[in-house]
Amino acid sequence: MPILTDKAPLGPSDVSPPSGPGREAARLIPVKGRALWRPAPYLYNRRHSSCLDFAVSIVDLEAVRRARLAREPFDHLVVPDFIPAAELAAINADYPEIDSAANHDLEDLRYGPAFARLVEALRGRELAEALGAKFGLPLQQLPVTITVRKYCERTDGNIHTDHPSKVVTVLVYFNPEWTSPDGRLRLLRSPDDIEDYAVEVPPLGGTLLAFRRTDHSWHGHTRYVGERRMLQLNFLDRRPWSVASQRVARLSTRFVKNVLGLR
User: Directed axis angle between helix 113-123 and helix 125-135, to 10°?
Assistant: First the structure.
């Protein structure tokens, strides 16, 4: 009898990654009759993993390689069709079940196999090398963190530069359409004017935005309340405390919002 997800029945070929040295890349955990996937070890050093090749097919790496690195207001690139339209619906169907407006650590979430394939593609060496070539950085040698969110609240979008431990930030969006004039990420020229922007990126499904974190990588968006699906992949510096400091910063933000009633 096939294991069932909360969306549709899956056969053995659907719930098992390809055999080979990268088989552990995606772990299947049956929970209450559902096929749920949890994160696996990073795959940067597994160049010939058949599982990684399987995962990479869910994104368009050539679109990343073709993208132009823009310099203003700081180094960034936008890839509108990073996730092909044919894959986006399946990924959204397997999106993590999230009921709060916050960034959630990937390790705390459960999700379906299509989303698991996307995660492994994002962690893969091929994407790190493609982005590293654009920014002139050895990103494949750096640790990464991944967080996911589903909802936006009125206190989100404040102007910031990102945490100093981040080297490059990658944002991937999932909403099938975006008609609101609000909630569009703006890359800013200054730290105190949301209207002083050089680039505005709608959070439209399939879009990837990557930028180099600097002391002037100001960005934010106008207030939006509602569903705004996004995954954030961060390449961090190699200092031992970097990963831990990311988690502390997220927990601190969440604590302050809860205590002050800012949600």
Answer: 40
